[in-house]
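Project channel, design review

CF: Before we commit to the Rudanella paleaurantiibacter constructs, I'd like one complete example in the thread so the newer folks can see what an input/output pair looks like. Taking Replication restart protein PriA.
RD: sounds good, go ahead.
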Amino acid sequence: MPDLVFSHSHEEEVTYFADLILPLPIPNLFTYRVPRTMVEVIKIGARVIVPFGKKDGRVLTAIVARLHNTPPPRYQARYILELLDDYPLITSYQLELFRWMADYYMCCIGEVMNVALPSGLKISSQSKVQYNPDFDYPELLSPEEVTLLEELKKHPALTYEELGRLVGELNVPTVIKALVGKRAVIVFEEVREKYVPKMIRKVRLGAAYEDREALLDLIRKLDKSPKQQEVVMRYLRHVPVLLNSALNSRGLDKTVLNQDDEISQSSMTTLIKNGIFETFEVIQPRFSDNLAPTVEIRLTEAQQQASEAIMAKFNTQNIVLLHGITGSGKTEVYINLIQQALESGSQVLYLLPEIALTTQIVVRLQRVFGDKMGIYHSKFSDNERVEVWKGVVSGQYQFVVGVRSAVFLPFDNLGLIIVDEEHETSYKQHDPAPRYHARDVAMMLAQWQQAKVLLGSATPSLESYYQAQQGRYGLVELFQRFGDATLPQITLVDTKVEKKQKTMKNEFTSALLTALGDNLERKEQSILFQNRRGYSPYMQCEDCDWTAECPNCDVSLTYHMKVGELRCHYCGYKEEVPRTCPVCGSTKVKTIGFGTEKLEDQLQILFPEARILRMDLDTTRAKNAYQQIIEEFEQGNVDMLVGTQMITKGLDFDKVSLVGIFDADRIIHFPEFRATERAFQMLTQVSGRAGRRGGRQGRVLIQTSNPQQLILQKIITNDYRGLYDEEIRERQDFNYPPFSRLIKLTVRHPEQHISKQAAERLAAELTDTLGSSRVLGPEQPLVERIRNQFLYDILIKIERGPVNMKAVKEFIRDRINDVLTDKGLRQVSIVVDVDCL
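CF: and here is what came back for Replication restart protein PriA:
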């Protein structure tokens, strides 16, 4: 999209306007006037600051989407306040992507912008107060107002919080409001960009002492001040100015000298005051800029053949699916393809499903690509993400590895996008809008930039494998494990039999306990998988059957023993663990079921000598928690790792020879049409963590109460094709994806009868046109109330083929607006989830 270049004659003054994307859930762009001073410099894709709404001082960061000279017909355009960028930070491809996502995912373009831009690129504003120098009526003031005004006179401007600290117990907002009414003070918004470069303070010799003779003369003069002389000598040891005076301009990080206990801080202060040293600041990149590649990747024969097959498929197809079993070395194939793309001058995006997986792979990639690679995910600070964003714009990063939000980065020359573990549900965003799937967005991005897409998985999604079978995607298969490794031996352990024989200890069968003990003796590592965090799913009274429930959601509270709390995993509500039953007063309140925390606790009792770690959402909240846990396990400092599905995603450990799986039946029998596919994927992926290096074959023990289940037999034989053939027939019979598109509408309201009324009306209006075979519901979901909102779901199934989906979505939007504009239903909210999972 070319930039609009303004030109105008001196005879005729032309007013210019900009259509802006505002980070708000509003359907339309807003038009603002371009100040004369900006006309020559403003560009499409740049950020600007604009006033918005009736509230004085409210400002927003907006993106310029269009430049023109047509005033808006229905309102008086306000002026843009400030231009933030000399060059566009948002590319024409990104603007096209924003528009497509808003249309496809049935949301507002402002919602896309809000999710796409790291918050460090958005502007924050803070109210400040200053004394009005024109005010001259002190007799109008109360004592409290006089006190506050006197403080204000001492400062150019203060925030409400700063004033509060200075005037003590005064009600600052009330007093300021009164002073504003009397025109004694001025309240304004100080606008600042959230992104702050990381600065380091450095020190260097004054320019006069860069000369050799002057420096030697200084050292002699400081004989009378030995402490100051020692500071200078220490500096010279780090910065050999006598050998090369040019080194002095770089200076030395001040903390290097400050950390030296022998250095007198007062001496340093005196040297700076006397001009012998000078201090200065420089911007320090948050990512190391001196990482050099240290590893060269060599492919095995099977990997080389797979890489060549992918390149051959790319000659005729833009999307290729790499179906490679766990441990087959898909990452090495990716690296080879990334190197080829970078050598051709193209950009590369490597998507991973979540941060747990990035930790290990990022280290491997850095050894190959050094500082050419950027890393982008939500655990990074705002400032770190902004630096990667700007690094892509400037060309510093040609290759970025990141999670789903990395699809929004400002690429303009993509050659290759890799979507690793493409089947993973983590690629789908659930809240807030846009509720996008990064895999699908990546394909659209690639289409606009004529890039190739490689999807990789040991257990591909049925939709992707179907497209490959239909010839729409290329298909390359890699069924040989790296090195001498073989697939693990999978054994089913019948928990019903062991319970009858009373050989189970807590949640552990005797077979699993024996295997864990043997592994511990051999100094090999074990992974234990339970897809439920916390100590216990719920607490119950044995006498009256009372169960601890969330007051905001229709779910039981989960017991977390380490912190002594009951928590809701939906809304975050917490409460203390009751000592007695709050209903009948009984002391017989017990935990029911088990989560990762309970398994960790029981393991420590059963194997007191074992070193045990847990990896779930509770233990990985801190920024570097994933990395610390994985490093500890990699280095052999941990014998057993207990975790949720985080541990299923591509982690690669040499010494893991045993995987234990709990509660497999709950995963298999989840009430959802993808349950069988998901169970196969999850259990196969976690099984694949065992025996990934040559030598001893890995073992997997799956605890189940029904070993005869067909899905478990397919997991044992790694029969993905058998699973696919059965599932695809069933999907076709019941018109589920890939044979249809799904749109879920969730109606929410604090009053159940209003929520139900709105849902029934919406469903009826949709059914009148689309038909009852396409509109299912409304039905209450498994969890009927979340955050005090009652929920009703309507599922729309539209068959693939000649149906005009754009028209269908427009029709759905209109029907939603009909409901939301009804006076009695205005407080209802309706969430639209396109391609719901």
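RD: helpful, thanks. The radius of gyration is 32 Å.
CF: The longest strand covers residues 789-799.
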